[in-house]
């Protein structure tokens, strides 16, 4: 199959790659997110709500996984990625089973161990796609998986609860249902051929990075990378709150959460982000695509401001608010994953890989989420949306816009030394650029 995909028409490889990576990461979400569909009413741990504790516990494990992944994901031999994905997700399912078996509150430790393997999966999956002339389209398709899967995972969890599955066993049951499907999609990953020589000429060759390689790359562009990572951290925090506490947000907006309320707003957001971020693949100039992605990221945060104003002024319905807010958060979130780091490596021609930069930014993003999860119950003294969520939203939007703009100014100043690939390579018809 790998040889056939290499020899077949480019669009066949494109859709195969999107399907394989989308499906793999979509299934991973069924081991991570269904538990958030339950409010765990009446369960507490000291002054904390039990749901806040287990969400924080999982995110803490997920965050630690990201930091471990900076080394593991950036250094791994490409031939070992698929087996590691299956191993990590299997370990997360075992943790969910132990979560169901163990009484509250002792079972919260197993939610930590559920998150611990899963944080490395995205970096491993994206490694199959980077360094290609159609990487943005492929990774946009992959990123749609976590936009759509978050809502669908909660929908699956809600349906399992409605069918009578006990809330502590519901996460494990959801994972078991999707395990066979996951295996099929991971097999599809193994059939994706390596980038062609033309891909490498246009985007630069991607190689594993050791510790010194990673340090050298970061030192070369430290201010610009720090600015992007800061904005990404803030966006990740607000995105995590929107995702993990969707039932509470819908309730605060005056709407009872139904399964479709979790799914359809995210479906609209996913399609919008796929078109917006995937289109940057058709910008052949790496520098131009990089700045276009920065502009899209700033535009997304402007949408966040509009959503916050609209819901407070009652100009937006709860459904519209979730859609506009989702677009505002996911456009920059996905732009970083699909374009900013991919084109940064391509335009600098530096020794690097997308796995490293994505995992590095994710690490700090989820670390911020841990602190916000702990602070939510301290600062949320009234309406969740109008008090805590509204405040965090404005901080994210304003600081994020400044950070992205600062990164743009920085790279504009140092960009004169960057050399674009030869025009004859960059100008090849897009039908040949997979």
UniProtKB/TrEMBL annotation:
It comes from the Bacteria. The chain crosses the membrane at residues 12-32, 52-70, 82-102, 108-129, 136-153, 168-189, 221-242, 262-283, 290-313, 319-341, 353-372, 392-412. InterPro entries: DUF5690, MFS_trans_sf. The keyword Transferase does not apply. SUPFAM superfamilies: MFS general substrate transporter. Keywords: Membrane, Transmembrane, Transmembrane helix. It holds the Pfam family DUF5690. This is MFS transporter. It comes from Telmatocola sphagniphila.
């Amino acid at each position: 199959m790998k040889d056939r995909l290499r020899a077949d028409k480019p669009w066949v490889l494109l859709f195969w790659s999107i399907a394989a990576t989308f499906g793999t990461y979509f299934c991973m979400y069924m081991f991570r997110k269904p538990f958030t569909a339950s409010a765990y009413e009446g369960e507490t741990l000291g002054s904390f709500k039990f749901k806040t504790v287990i969400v924080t516990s999982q995110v803490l494990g997920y965050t630690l996984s990201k930091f471990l992944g900076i080394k593991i994901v950036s250094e791994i031999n490409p031939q070992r990625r698929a087996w590691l994905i299956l191993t990590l997700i299997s370990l997360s399912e075992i943790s969910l089973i132990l979560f169901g078996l163990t009484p509250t509150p002792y079972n919260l430790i197993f939610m930590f161990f559920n998150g611990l393997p899963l944080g490395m999966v995205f970096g491993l999956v994206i490694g199959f796609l980077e360094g290609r002339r159609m990487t943005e389209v492929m990774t946009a398709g992959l990123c749609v998986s976590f936009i759509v899967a978050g809502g669908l995972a909660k929908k699956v969890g809600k349906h399992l609860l409605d069918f009578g599955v006990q809330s502590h066993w519901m996460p494990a049951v959801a994972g078991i249902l999707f395990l066979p499907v996951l295996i099929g999609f991971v097999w599809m990953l193994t059939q994706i051929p390596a980038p062609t020589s033309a891909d490498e000429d246009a985007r630069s060759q991607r190689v594993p990075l050791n510790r010194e390689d990673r340090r050298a790359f970061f030192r070369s562009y430290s201010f610009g990378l720090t600015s992007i990572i800061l904005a990404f951290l803030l966006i990740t925090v607000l995105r995590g709150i929107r995702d993990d506490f969707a039932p509470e947000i819908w309730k605060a907006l005056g709407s009872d959460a139904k399964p479709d309320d979790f799914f359809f707003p995210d479906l609209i957001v996913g399609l919008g982000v796929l078109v917006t971020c995937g289109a940057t693949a058709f910008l052949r100039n790496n520098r131009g695509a990089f700045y276009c992605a920065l502009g899209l990221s700033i535009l997304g945060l402007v949408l966040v401001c509009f959503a916050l104003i609209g819901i407070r002024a009652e100009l937006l319905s709860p459904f519209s608010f979730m859609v506009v807010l989702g677009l505002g958060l996911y456009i920059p979130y996905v732009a970083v994953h699909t374009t900013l780091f991919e084109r940064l490596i391509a335009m600098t021609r530096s020794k690097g890989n997308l796995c490293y930069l994505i995992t590095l930014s994710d690490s700090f993003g989820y670390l911020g989420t841990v602190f916000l999860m702990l602070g939510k119950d301290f600062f949320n003294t009234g309406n969740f949306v109008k008090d805590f969520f509204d405040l965090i939203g404005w901080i994210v939007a304003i600081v994020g816009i400044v950070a992205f703009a600062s990164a743009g100014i920085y790279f504009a100043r140092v960009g004169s030394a960057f050399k674009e690939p030869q025009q004859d390579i960059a100008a090849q018809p897009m039908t040949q650029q997979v």
